[in-house]
Amino acid sequence: MELPFCCDFLSVVLPFPLFLTAWPPPTAFHASMQGIRNGVGGRQRAPLCRAGLRASHYKRHVAARMLSRGRVLRSMSGLTLPPSLRRWFLWYPRRGGEFLGDMLAGHNLFIADIPRKFDAQHARHFSFTESLCITPLFALTMVHYFSSFFLCPTRRQMFPVLMTELARKTEAQLQWTDVMAKRSPADVIAWRPLMAVTQVVLFPAWLLLASFAPQLVHAMLERTNHILHQKLACISKDAPPFVQQYMTEAREAEAFHSQQLCIPTDYCAALLITLLVLYLTS
Question: How far, in Å, CA of 17 to CA of 134, rounded?
Answer without folding.
Answer: 55
